[in-house]
Structures are given as structure tokens and as C-alpha cells.
Design brief:
It contains 9 helices and 17 strands. By secondary structure, it is of the alpha/beta class. The chain has a 7-stranded parallel β-sheet. A 5-stranded antiparallel β-sheet has the order 10-11-12-17-14, covered by helices on one side. The protein has a 3-stranded antiparallel β-sheet with strand order 13-16-15, with no helix packed on it. Helix 3 runs parallel beside helix 8. It comes from Chitinophaga filiformis (Myxococcus filiformis). Pfam families: Alpha_L_fucos, Fucosidase_C. Belongs to the glycosyl hydrolase 29 family. This is alpha-L-fucosidase.
Length: 471
């Protein structure tokens, strides 16, 4: 994950999009369609269908970098688009050493996953993906493979009875029927088997010649396998293994033997969805356009992962998207058949910013009225018409037309008109959240709904209005 602005200690630093940076919001379609391979395992197919019904999930990037209000991991990567600032920035080795010593100060004493779960559930979220390890290699779980972890005696929070935060988060969310996803970075910049100290790192890739040192690369393979096995065996039922770091891939001559990992993982977690993101093929069970929304439905399962603010990780200076924009994003994504994985970064103290809770509260109030057209829905042609976006119930008896407002308070015109397809008869139209009695006409594929005057003037609705069309 990357962002466009990075907060360093006391200073702002620019960070330019690199080779693996995402497209911008609403631009383009994920370029994996021609290579997508649908899973054949019936258990995976069933779980993938269940996951698609959830539609709205919570993503969390969290690590020691939050002590600096720092971009997750990337500031220690020696690539030319990273700009380091702050007291350690003049010398790369000094900077990296200071970064890795953040472990000695990491003590998120406000950690309370039940508080997060309650807010996420109320917002209509139904699955969670948590960063068990990002590219910097700091483990947010009790791995036995390294001491660079939150449960290490070197980390102050290790004394807390809830120090194994991955387990605590998964347990808290699972109790309320959330699907559970484990984010795991394939590259590990702390591991001597990936960035060997004998050589300086040059970029995000392994820093030695794998052909010359195959034994060292095999040790990294085993290290990665063992860590994923720990997650698959010690943290309860896992639904999604969300693998990041797509430059570690066979065609990049950096294979970590995904068939071996997948077989092991599914032997412990039958039906596990595996997301080897940006690596098309057998182990990318759904695709993950980052910070972007395809302009049309995709012919395979997909999920937009996007930040609530500008940053994947917590920053005290971050600005959060307005609630109306977040609702609009959710509607647009679901209308295209995708899931919305919305990221919130916890702080170094272990909590979200108050603004994040407020955004979720606003979305929850909207979902209380309109969620029936989001959860379990499917896309339906024509998908959108002007500012109206469509979804359909799984039984195909109801179509939901979401009229997106250009202000927080929905102000409807006397008539709302939009194109529909393959509808010959309408039994009823309701405006969710109101008791309005509506009249309509359907002619030549155009549906026109007359809105009562009292609803025009004061609908009581926020962000968008949903017309439920029963056919």
C-alpha cells in the first residue's frame, strides 16, 4: 500500500507514485481480467460467494510506523520516489536503524478491538482484513520466526495480556460473525533472507542474486511458509489470506512456492480464499483495484481497497473523506458488483481518530435505511444512469435505484427519471426510509417516478435516496 503524502516527525514529505502505485479514484479497470482463473474447489467457490454477499469490509494498517505518523514501511525502501525528512533523514542507515528501533517504544495502551468491532458492525461492515505483517517485517502477531514482533520483550506492549493483537482482533470480530482476513506481506525487509545485510538494499526486491545463493532464498521460502502456517493454525477460523507485495512472484524470479503455501493453508483452513494480489492465476481468487473503481462490472470477484483518509496508516494530520463521499463510493462499487474494503489506521496509542468513528456512525445510519440494497446484492444493467446507480436482490425480485445527492441533505425533484432494462411490469415502488406513496410511469425503457411535494421539501434522508422497485 502506498500514499501520496507522508507525515514524518514534525514535517511533511512528498512521496510520488511508484511502479506499483494504484490508479486514481474512478479511473480504469483492473488489468487482470484476461488472466483470471476461477477456483475449482467447491469449498472456495462457496466461501467466495458468501464473501461477495458481505459487500462492505474493514481494512486496518497498523504498526510501529505510527509512532512517527509515518507511511507504512516504504520510508525504509531505497527507491527514488521516497523522500525522507526528519532528524534521521541525512543518512539511510541511521534512518533505518531508528525506524527499526521504534519497536522499543511501541506501546498501544488504548487497544480495544471490541470498540472497533462495535463501530464497524454498526456501520454495516461484515468482514475485516488486518495487517499481520507489512513489508517492514514487524509482526503484529506472536510469530516464533523472529523477535521483530509486538509480543517480543523488546516491545513494551508485550507485557499487556492482549499483546497478540492479531488474535485479539480476530477473536473480537469473529464473535459477531465477521468474516476474518489476514493481510500478510510476502516481502520482508527485516529478514536476513530477503534483505541480506551483506549487501545494501537497492529497491523493494530481494537484494542478492537468488541464483548464486539458492540456499538463502530457500530459507526465506521456509520462513514465509512457517509464518503463514502459524497464522493458519493458531488464530481460529480464517476466511481470507490477503497477500501483498506482488513483485514477489514467479515471473519476477522471486517465487515463494505458492502451491506449497496454498495446500498447507487450505489443509488447515478448508475453503480459504487466497488473494495473491496483482499476480494473476490460480491464487488470486479475487482482484483488488487499489484506490480505484472500475467504470463497469468485472467478470470475476473483486474488491476496491481504499483509505478513509489519504493515508493507509495513521497520521495525526490526515483528512478523512466526507461521509457523503464514502456512501457514494460504497454505492458505486456495489453497483459494479464489487466489495468495498475501507481502511482505517489505528494510532500508536491503539485507537482510531474520532473522525473515523463519526464517519462510520454516519454510514451506519444510512445503512440502517438503505442496506438491504447493498448486502447480498448483485449488479444489474444498466448499472447507472446519470446520478442513479442500480443494484438487484439475489432473488431478482427487487431493484434498488440509488439517487446520489450533491448535498448531505437529499433534495429530490418533482420527478426522478432514469433508464431501466428488461422491466415489463412494476408491482410497487417505495422510497426507503419514508412512507411516501409514489406514482410512476414506465415507457420505452424509461422509468419516471413522481415525488410527493412534502418529500421534495423535506425527505429526512441523507447522502442518497433509494427507490426500491418490486418487479
Amino acid at each position: 500500500m502506498r500514499k501520496l503524502l507522508v507525515i514524518f516527525p514534525l514535517l511533511l514529505a512528498g512521496i510520488l507514485p511508484g511502479k506499483y502505485a494504484s490508479a486514481q479514484e474512478n479511473e480504469g479497470v483492473h488489468e487482470m481480467s484476461k488472466d483470471y482463473q476461477a477456483p475449482k474447489d467447491p469449498l472456495v467457490i462457496r466461501k467466495l460467494s458468501k464473501w461477495q454477499d458481505q459487500r462492505f469490509g474493514l481494512f486496518m494498517h497498523w504498526g510501529t510506523y505510527t509512532l512517527w505518523g509515518e507511511v507504512e514501511s516504504w520510508s525504509i525502501c531505497p527507491v527514488d520516489w521516497v523522500v525522507r525528512k526528519g532528524p534521521y533523514s541525512e543518512d539511510y542507515n541511521t534512518y533505518r536503524s531508528a525506524y527499526e528501533h521504534l519497536q522499543y517504544d511501541f506501546n498501544p495502551v488504548d487497544f480495544n478491538p471490541e470498540k472497533w468491532e462495535k463501530a464497524a458492525k454498526a456501520a454495516g461492515m461484515r468482514y475485516v482484513v488486518f495487517t499481520t505483517k507489512h513489508h517492514d517485517g514487524f509482526c503484529m502477531f506472536d510469530t516464533k520466526e523472529t523477535d521483530y514482533k509486538i509480543t517480543s520483550p523488546n516491545t513494551p506492549f508485550s507485557k499487556n495480556p492482549r499483546s497478540n493483537v492479531t488474535k485479539e482482533i480476530f477473536d473480537a470480530f469473529r464473535k459477531d460473525s465477521f468474516m476474518i482476513g489476514a493481510y500478510f506481506s510476502k516481502p520482508d525487509w527485516h529478514s536476513q533472507y530477503f534483505w541480506w545485510k551483506y549487501y545494501p538494499p537497492k529497491d523493494e526486491h530481494v537484494n542478492y542474486d537468488i541464483k548464486k545463493f539458492p540456499e538463502r532464498w530457500q530459507k526465506f521460502n521456509d520462513f514465509t511458509y512457517n509464518q503463514i502456517q502459524e497464522l493458519m493454525t493458531g488464530y481460529g477460523p480464517i476466511d481470507i489470506l490477503w497477500l501483498d507485495g506482488g513483485w514477489v512472484r514467479p515471473d519476477g524470479k522471486q517465487s515463494i512456492d505458492m502451491p506449497r503455501i496454498a495446500n498447507m493453508a487450505r489443509s488447515h483452513q478448508p475453503g480459504l480464499i487466497i488473494v495473491d494480489r496483482t499476480v494473476p492465476g490460480e491464487f488470486e481468487n479475487y482482484t483488488t483495484p487499489e484506490q480505484s473503481i472500475p467504470d463497469k462490472p468485472l467478470p470475476y470477484p473483486w474488491e476496491t481497497c481504499m483509505t478513509m483518509g489519504y493515508s493507509w496508516s495513521y497520521s495525526p494530520r490526515d483528512e478523512y473523506k466526507p461521509s457523503r463521499q464514502l456512501v457514494s463510493l460504497l454505492v458505486k462499487i456495489v453497483s459494479r458488483g464489487g466489495n468495498f474494503l475501507l481502511n482505517i489506521g489505528p494510532s500508536d496509542k491503539g485507537d482510531w481518530a474520532p473522525e473515523a468513528y463519526k464517519r462510520l456512525e454516519d454510514m451506519g445510519k444510512w445503512m440502517d435505511i438503505n442496506g438491504e440494497g447493498i448486502h447480498g446484492s448483485r449488479p444489474v444493467a444498466p448499472y447507472s444512469d446519470k446520478n442513479v446507480y442500480f443494484t438487484q436482490s439475489k432473488d431478482q425480485h427487487s431493484i434498488y435505484a440509488y439517487y446520489l445527492s450533491d448535498s448531505d441533505e437529499v433534495k429530490l425533484p418533482a420527478e426522478v427519471s432514469f433508464a431501466v432494462q428488461d422491466i415489463k411490469k412494476i408491482n410497487r415502488i417505495a422510497l426507503l426510509g419514508t412512507k411516501a406513496k409514489l406514482q410512476w410511469t414506465l415507457k420505452d425503457g424509461q422509468l419516471t417516478i413522481k415525488v410527493p411535494k412534502n418529500i421534495q421539501e423535506k425527505s429526512g434522508l441523507k447522502y442518497s435516496a433509494a427507490f426500491k422497485i418490486s418487479v
